Amino acid sequence: MAKRFTCTAPSLKGVVYTLEIWDSTFSGTATTFNVSSRLFEQRISGQAEKKTTRIMGGELTFDMLIENSTHAQIIADLRTSKEDQFTLKVTTGASSPTLFWTGVIIADNTEQEDANYPYQFTIKAICGLGALKNVPYYDAGTLYTGTKTFVEHIKNCLTKIPSSALYASGDEFFRTSVDWWDENVTPANATDPLNVYGVDHIAFYDFHTSGGTEKDVLSCYDVLDNILTAFDARIMMVDGVYWIEQPSYRTSNYVGRKYAKTGSYLTFSAYGSQNTLNRTESGARNSGQGGTWDYYPALKKVIVNYNVFNRRNMYQLGTIVSNPYGGSFPGGSFTQEIDSSGGNSVIKATGDLSIQVINASYSGNQNNMVYAVFRVQIRIGLRYWVNTYTKDIPGNKINYTAGQWSATAGYFYLHVIINPIPNSNVGLSTSINILTQPLVQDGGDNLFTLELHAIEKAWEAGTIATSVINVWHQIPNIWLELYDQGTPDAKEDITQYTATGDAGNNIIETYDTRIGTGTSTNSVGRVRRKVGSNWVVTGNWGIGSEAKNKKLSDLLAITILRGQYTPIRKMSTVAYGSIVLYRKFVTDGVSWLFQGGTWRASDDELAGDFYEINYGTGGVNSTPVKVIQLGNNNIPIFAGNGNPTTGNTPPVTSGNPGFGSSPPPAVLYPVSNNALSAPVATGSITSLPVVTALTGNDYAINDIITIVNPVTGQFDSLTITAGPTAGATAIAVSGTLTANYPQGSYLIKKPIAYAFSLPTTTKGSVLRFNRTSVKWEAYDGVTNGHVLTWDASTNDWKASAPTTVTPANVTAGSTKVTLGGTPTGAALQAFTIDVNEANL
Fold it and tell me: Are the beta carbons of 724 and 688 closer than 8 angstroms?
């Protein structure tokens, strides 16, 4: 990189300016050129709608006189140049020049006069602040990580402007003038709030909400805008450096802290000078050139929306994928500070899993069922979320232990059921939804991966090689979320702060920022204070030496309100003299700040807009309000049945709805009589192989048996054609199967109506089975003394009188009764009955 063209010219007042065009592809001696009589014009943009413009982009325009082919070559080179090839450096002073301005020259900001030599080639260079809208906030494609001071964030952004190459590493590059402090820091000239406080880089990322890293990270412009908004500050290029200041700090003397291009602190300077416009040569207001007075209206209310993004995706990496074309990315490490919140924080992972199953060389029965078991590795800090699994072969399911945090590396397992095994290939899709127990320690170096673990056989022990059955997968939308208060219903997207002024006013201004005082330990953009190598939370905030009694966003809201508590005068005029843009302007005893306009170097005059510096003391802050955004694209769309779980206890299956440890039909396992020991195919069937050997009285002829697929729930009913024998491993049946059934399908005997249903009756009744009605009936009898006796002729029980003992059955003088004997004549005497107990 070298200086290619140079021009030195004075203003009408004799101020010497030097314009240098630098070319990153040039080496050699610079060629001189001349400019038109206007020398150059420097314009700084301001936003007219609101009093303070956060980022005041600037441009510098001059007319280069093209007098020869060497001059003309720059026109040709600009047509093919990259945006960072040509830069402009402007200095002031003849003997000891000081830096006045730097910027970038771009071809589409040039204009060529259609004339012969010498002709004008108008060049417009930009300060680069506006161009940062198209520069993503990362380091050459790599995400920034960790918590850094605001000065470091600012340096990261500003050094991406191509003209930063014009500065040596130790040159002054930017200045800050900020006077907001929290209660833990004593204000001092050599201490800079922007170099004491900071935020994590995650405040400036929207992971997987827009599509790819370049779209998900904020632009450098937006990063600066968020920082400046949080502190009610603004930035512009002044005196060759980027100047950051709080307008509210400009009411009196102030301090500016200076930083090198590396972000290193250089020194501070106390400022008290002003541009006094008192109709003298050193400063005047030319009201004769059409100056006007106007007003900004008084504000009724100021609302600050602090985007805490408590519902956000912490996963910072790309799509998890495994495919047959050589592409594979299981996920990996991500750096993000995670606070366990005293054992309240839990992690939730959701996503849509697409699976392709390819039968490469499987030759077994395709009706068999297999489990594609995946393993997820979640590490937060030094702890892993783990579980274990075992196969329940009879139950056609996988059982999981409850998940827990472990200091030993491990995995959390889950599975997908594949049935039947395809002839060639098949596509499946489901959702994952993992909710952990509360974290046991904080995280920083974290990990999330998902891989295929094994293809488990459902019908027996063992696995199938992944070369035999290929399982490829993809999760394009992993969403890893943190609930630092334990439940999703306690999380918000925005904390809204409000300052209210006079109800008689009508104007309400709203500001959005990602930086503030965090409402929870894991709020994105929560400001923290650097103490040595540690970062600690901040307390309440205040201005300078005033009381520290507000949250940062409360302080922002009330400061903006008080700066416009009454109508604020706005002045459009032309000022001339020894003007320094970063100074305040004083005319007729009123202080003003420059809001935007054009510096005409040839005439040493500034045509622009100014507003009155007038901060009142009114207004009150309201209690902050938590806001949840509906339809916000930062909120995950829960896949399948993966709805949020509000408790800390994971679901009882695998802790992962959508990957249930057993499919819904498997609930029939406890009521099944047996199960298939081998798959059976569709069509007519005469025998069912069973897992458990029969006892011989399991079924009867004409019993109905139902076969149920444990995966799909499909079923068919068959009829028993022969009574089984003890030890048999097959059942004789008749019927037709309408589907294929895998090994392990359930066999359930269909009960006969009323077969096990007993009627209600009165005390003393007996039950007898009525073969005609095929049910049990109550019997009470109709004649006293009758009993039920078996009638072999009718094969039935009937009521009849019992056999009685008469004198004819008694032997005189005997102590025995002979049933069916012949009378011998004597009177009945006392007797006993001998009973042979062995015959009872």
Answer: no
Q: What is the mean pLDDT of the chain?
A: 85
Question: Residue 136 in contact with residue 217, Cβ under 8 Å?
Answer: yes
Q: What totals of helices (H) and strands (E) does the chain contain, helices first?
A: 6, 59
More confident residue, 59 or 581: 59
Model confidence at 278, pLDDT cuts 50, 70, 90, reads confident
* 8 Å CB contact between 44 and 581: yes
Contacts 24+ apart (CB under 8 A), 791-794: none
Q: Is the pLDDT confidence value at 809 over 60?
A: no
Of 179-188, 282-291, 579-588, least confident by mean pLDDT is 282-291
For the chain, what's the residue count?
840
Tokens of 611: 């507003």
Using alpha carbons, list the distances in angstroms from residue 672 to 688, 692, 717, 749.
Answer: 15, 12, 14, 8
Tokens at 88, concatenated: 């402009």
CA dihedral sign, ordered 86, 87, 90, 91? negative
pLDDT of residue 481: 86
**SS3 assignment, position 418:** strand
Residue in the structure block whose two tokens are 């005059």? 605
Contact between 205 and 216 (Cβ < 8 Å): yes
Show the 3-state SS of 44-102.
ECCCCCCCCCCEECEEEEEEEEECCHHHHHHHHHHHCCCCCCEEEEEEECCCCCEEEEE
Least confident of 453-462, 534-543, 562-571, 638-647: 638-647
Whether the model pTM is above 0.70: yes
Q: How far apart are CA 348 and CA 649, in angstroms?
A: 12
Burial class (CB in 10 A: 0-12, 13-18, 19+), 350: buried
Pick the CATH number of 665-750 from 3.40.50, 1.10.3210, 3.90.550, 2.40.10: 2.40.10
Burial of 212 (0-12, 13-18, 19+ CB in 10 A): exposed
